[in-house]
Amino acid sequence: MKGTYLGEFEELVLLTVASLANEAYAVVVKKEVEKNADRKVNISAIHSSLYRLEDKGFLSSEFGGATQKRGGKQKRFFKVTSAGFATLQQSKDLKEQLWKNIPQLSFSH
Amino acid sequence: MTRSSDHSTPPRLGTYLLKKIYSEELFGEISGDLEEIYQEQVAEKGRFIASCNYLVDAVLSIRNYDLRRRKKITQNNSIAMFKNYFKITLRTISKNKVYSGLNIMGLALGIAAFIFILQYVTYENSYDKFHSNHENTYRVLYKVYRGEDLQIDCAAAVPRVGPFMKEKMPEVEAFARAFPVSGVMSTDNTKFREDRIHIADPDFLNIFDYSVVEGDKNNLLTEPNQVVLTSEMAEKYFGSTDVIGKTITFNSWLKLPLEITGVTENVPNNSHFKYDFLISYETLNNETRQDDGSSNSETAWGWYDFNTYVQLKDGADPKAFDEKFEEVLYEERGEIFEKYNFKAEFPLQPITDIHLYSNLLQESEPEEQGDGDAVFFLSIIAFFILVIAWINYINLSTARAMERAKEVGIRKTMGAYKKQLVYQFLSEALLLNFFALIIGLLIVVLGIRYFNQLTNSLLSTDFLVSTEFWLTAIGVFFAGVALSGLYPAFVLSSFKPVAVLKGKLQGQKAGKGLRRSLVTFQFAASVTLIAGTLIVYQQLQHMNTVDLGFDMTNTLVIKGPQSLESDSIYQTKLQTFKSQMLNIPGVDQITASSNVPGDEIFWTNGIRKWEDPDSQNNTIYIAGIDHDYFPTFDIKMVAGRNYDKSFTTDTGAVILNKAAVKLLGYESPAEAVNQKVRFWNNPKTIIGVVDDYQQMSAKSEVAPIVLPLVKAPSGFFTLSLTTDNYQQVLNQAQQTFTAFFPRDPYDYFFIDEFFNRQYANERTFSRVFTLFAIFGVVVACLGLFGLSSFTALQRTKEIGIRKALGASLRGIVMLLSKEFIILIAISNLIAWPIIYLVMEQWLDNFATRISMPIWVFLFAGAMVMITALITVGYKTFRTAQSNPVKALRYE
User: Looking at the partner chain, which of B9, B32, B40 has a beta carbon nearest the beta carbon of A73?
Assistant: First the structure.
């Protein structure tokens, strides 16, 4: 299915949102990705992925509280939907399957 | 600073950008995210770095431009809309076949005329550009001043100047001279008279790119008695181009066997210099060798028959060169200049200017010289015709606005944007212009042969594969679409849908003023073209019929023999030849002379009153004649007498023309008679003065000529005939000629044809002018026809009511035509002063010119008026004639 394809970065974002439980909004996601993946990410890339994932139905969102730090603007909190979890699971299974197929020999050393 | 760091706001530019990038819905939350990061960074890294990062984030957000944006409905639809536009255009065309046909034909004719003229102009401008070195190659001119008075203005220079420039001026890379001669070329089997023979320096073929097809390119024309000929000549004399090493004999004042060392391709048509044979320059040097070993053809400073070309080094400035050379020349020649009270100049002329911008004595191909002004005029005419065609399109489209108004109204009601309607009408213009372009090209391809015949030009359809042409064509095409399409597109698209659908537009005068001024412009242009054509034609007629001072009718000229044994033998032969020719029935008189009228005189010398000092010397043209010259040509003596066989002293006498009398400074011809002049360094008595007959065309002033009695002139035999049965005379003359001069070809011409060939250029010009004047008028009338029929159509109801109330047919036709009559009258008033100014200037180029014929103005105006009235009248008459009931029921 064309719409369900997950890019590498999208998968990373999706997993991060999942790990953050109910605290996932763009700024936090950015920090988490940078921390875990040890790479510099621009906020616009995070925005792009979050909204696209929501469009694909892997994320859902609701507005949360505003702080003064944000100039009084609301946060949008993201949650992984069941479709999102299913896709993540699929992707994990696929990778495990592939790992299994690698000849053991090369691992023994 | 009172504000704490918590309260600092991010740079406004960034926020502005975000607002532009994100939709309203997303802007709040996203800018909040960015601001949060900003505030954190202000605390950690300071305000400056935070601001920078904020800006970077904002700029990088551009990638999210289409995030959650509503897609525009039209985006995927535009191709379908354009398909619809084209469909509608095709339907409109087929619905109004007549008007679309008029529109397209007008445009097509305009485009065709434009392409024709463009090709003609391009060709005229292409002369001599095929030489790879044309930018550095110049012709050396020869100008002689006496005081301020320019006495000789000649295209051919003197033999010495070429080598002298090369010696003294480091800028000169190479020079080459070419001395034109004519004579009879003969092989064992064939003999022909050839006029395009030049005696040329070896570098001639290096400076110019006439490609050598046989022979060693770097080793041609180096030795005496060598010749290079064109492949056409090789075929003519030997039947093949494999002629290296063969011999051809040149018979003229020198009789020489020449060895063929090279063959070149034929000279391209767009070369100002044309040759069939090139004889090595050393040949001439041998002939003119003096006792001291030097040659006249290397050292002479006064023999101005040598076309001299120099090639300058890259970047040399001809102006600076001329100035510098003037000083160098003065060092060498100053003494002579002072002694004889004259000054010679040798200015450089770019070879690419020769064809169009040079009209000097002794041009290489005088009949072929183009006229830069004429070419410029033509370019303007081409442009005008195109503009007239575009105006037609504008006029017809806006006039038809009423008809399209409903369509516009409905489209707008259905939600069409104004922009879309503009596109629609522009694409309509695009399609019509495209059809017109195709038809125009078709007209050109089919008509180019006739165009060439009519204008004596050599255009080909090769231009269809040249990139330059297509660039121009595409440029003109899009200019046409834009110019003719934009105005109607905006007028049509700006109608108010409600007004239109209620039918209220009828009262509006959409673009009426513009339409009127455009029609006026069209007809002003037409009147100008017609009047211009008529004036050109009148002037040509005038030159053909002007009293030339000699009799052109029934005058046959036979070219004289070139293969002469010796002067004395020829002299005795000549007497018997002449009397035998007189025995042919129909031959009235015969004369032998060195020149005939219409043949440019190359023979000059100095002349002055016997008592005058050296410094008063004048240059005069010489035509050697016998006793019968004046009676044969019927040239009038204005004072004194003709040469007489009974006066043996006549060998010491001369006859002058009136211009020469004036040149020498005598008060009147009568006073000059019996005066002594110094001529050929001998005292000569003036025994007679002849009227100023036209030696050359009526374009130029009559030159001063001395006509000395020559013992045995061999240039031409002129026969005045009393019969119209030319064939018989020609046959008998041929028999006699071949009996006397068996080694010469028998060539003849009639003097009127020969003389009038000098006007060939003007005649071509007038034909081209006429052709395009017709083009212009036809295109303008097409437009007028369309326009008037629409006016009539629009006023159908009015006419119906008028008729029902008893208006006469004539009254209605008058009513409908009145508007156009006024417009044409105004356009006449605009055109007349323009014609007057332009044509007055053109006429001033001629030595004998007509005075501005006022009737031409009225005639051109009347012609345009009548054509327009017929055009308008046809449609209005039919409308006026129709049954009023029909007219009133038409809706």
Answer: B32
